Amino acid sequence: MKSAMALLLLAALAMPAMANDGAKLYTEKTCNACHGPAGNKPLMPDYPKIAGQNAKYAERQMLDIKSGARANGNAAAMKGVMHLVSDAEIKALADYLSKLKP
Q: What is the pTM of this model?
């Protein structure tokens, strides 16, 4: 039992701390520059409002832009920053966005 708890603790410590903080990542990865401070007031009219978006959908879109599977619309603008975001950070960002008020 103690060894299982120790393994869980080690696993938790091994995860990057910032990957769990979507709000911090949203600012650090400059998402706010284009999508607005709360994800609901984009810089340009054709940029999406992402606050309140379904977490799985947002995660899939970010992963597809990062991989190049999605290259339509404004994907080219995001492609320039998505290489700086790990998959764990994408998940944290998607979760954070889903909890924002649209």
A: 0.80
Asked whether 25 and 97 are in contact (CB, 8 A), the reply is no
Q: What is the pLDDT of residue 75?
A: 93
Give residue-wise pLDDT tens across range 19-77: 569 999 999 999 999 999 999 999 999 999 999 999 999 999 999 999 999 999 889 99
Domains of the chain (ranges; CATH) run 19-98 (1.10.760.10)
DSSP code per residue over 1-66: -HHHHHHHHHHHHHS-GGGG-HHHHHHHTTHHHHH-TTSSS-SSTTSPP-TT--HHHHHHHHHHHH
Residue 39 near residue 97 (C-beta atoms within 8 A): yes
CA distance 1 to 3: 5
Nearest alpha carbon to residue 39 among 51, 47, 30: 51
